[in-house]
Amino acid sequence: MKLYTNRKYTTIAVYAIIVIAVNVILIMAIFKFNTILNILGKLLSVMMPIIWGLALAFLMNPLMVATERLYQKVIKKPKRLLVMRAVSVTITALLFLGLLAGIIAIIVPEIANSFNEIVDNFSDTLSKAESWIDKTLKNYPKAQEFVKTRLTNFGSDLTKLQPIIENIVNSALGLMNVIYNFLLGFIVSIYLLINKEKHLAQTKKVIFANFKKSTSEKILRFGNEANIVFSGFITGKIIDSIIIGILAFIGLTLIGMPYNVLISVIIGVTNIIPFFGPFIGAIPSGLLIFLVEPKMVIWLLLFILLLQQFDGNILGPKILGGTTGLPAIWVMFSLFICGGLFGFVGMLLGVPTFALLYKIVKDNVEDKLKKKKMPTSTQYYIENSGKLTSPRIKRQPLTKEELEALVIPSSEEVNEAIERKAAETVFKEGDEGSVFDETDGLPPDIADPDPSGQEI
Length: 456
Known about the structure:
Structural class: mainly alpha
Largest sheet: none
Number of helices: 16
Strand content: under 5%
Radius of gyration: 39 Å
Shape: extended
Oligomer: single chain
C-alpha cells in the first residue's frame, strides 16, 4: 500500500511540532531554572580557557600585525611566510608577557604595601578624621554627631570585613584557577594567531555553505565592522588608560599625595569605562585620602577633574579618533543597560556594542531613504521639520445658504448622463478603428470598388 502525503498538512504538522517543542523548552526553563543555570555555569567554566584564548588573541593580534610589517621592512619579500609568522608570534608573546609581568612587579607590591599601611594605621587615621570633623563641624553639633556615628560604624564594619578580605586575598584556589585559565588561554591564543588565516577561511566556508550568498556577504560585512569597532575601541582605550595612569602617578607624586601608586592604578583602571570612569575612580580615591589627609581631598578632586578634561578633549580624541561615532546620549544608555546587566565587563563592552548596532541601523535607514530619493542628512530634517508633512485641512460645515444652493440631480438625469458617457466612449473607440468601420452598412458596389481602379 502506497502512502500519499499532503504537502500542505505536512508543513502544518512540522510547524505544530516546533511550537510544541518550544513550549516544552520554555516550561522546562521556568521550572528547572536553577538546574539550567548550573549547567550553563559548568559549561562556562569549561569554556573559560577558550574564552581567555579568544580574548588574548584579539588583544595580541594588532601587535602581531605590526611586528610582521616591521619584519617585511627588514627582510624584503620574505620567502618563508611560516617563519615570518613564527617570529612575529614569538616576539608578540614575549612582549605581552613582559609587559604583564612588569605591571604586576611594579603595581602589586605597591598596592599590597598601601593596603597593609591602611590596615595598620587605621586607628590613627580614624582619630585624625574625627579631630578634623570636630574642628570643621564644631558649630553644627547635630551634623558632627551624625558624621562621627557614621564614621565609627564604617570603622567597625571594616574591622569585621578585614578577616574576610584577607581570606579572599589568600585564597590559593581562586588564584590558581585564574592562573590555570590564563595559561591555557595563552596557549590557545598562540595556536589561533599562528593559523589565523586558516581559521578565518574555515569560518567563511561554513557561512557560505549554510546561508545564501547575499546573506553570507552581509554576515561577513557585519563581522568586519565589528572587528574594526571593537579592536579600535578596546586597543585605544587600553592605551589611553595606561597613559592616564602614568600621568596620574606623575601628578600625584608632584603634589605629594599619599598612596599615589594605588590611586593612580584606580584612576587608570576606571578610566577604561567611558564617560563615568574618572568619576567612579574619584569616589574610592577621595574616600581613601579623606581618611588620611582630609585637606588633600579637594586637591585630589581638582586634579582628577583636570585630568578628565585633558583626556576627554585632547588625549582621547587623538587616540580613539572616530572608532565609535556614538552620540553621548547613547553612550549613557549603553553604560546604564550593559553595566546593570553585566557589571564592569558590560560597561567596557557596552559602548562598542551599541556603536556597532547604531552604525547598522544608521546605514539601513540611509539606504531606505536613498531608495525613496530623500535626503539622508539629519540637518535637513531639523531645518525642514514643518515641511515634511502636509498640513491637515479642517473642513467647515456648509451654511444654510450653501445647502439651499446645491442642485441634486434626479435618478433619471443620472441614468441619462451615464448612457451619454457610454455612447461617447463607444464613438471614440470607433474613430480609432477598433470597433467601428466606415464601410459598415454600405452597398456592395460602393463598399468594394473595382480592383482595377476604374469608375463603374
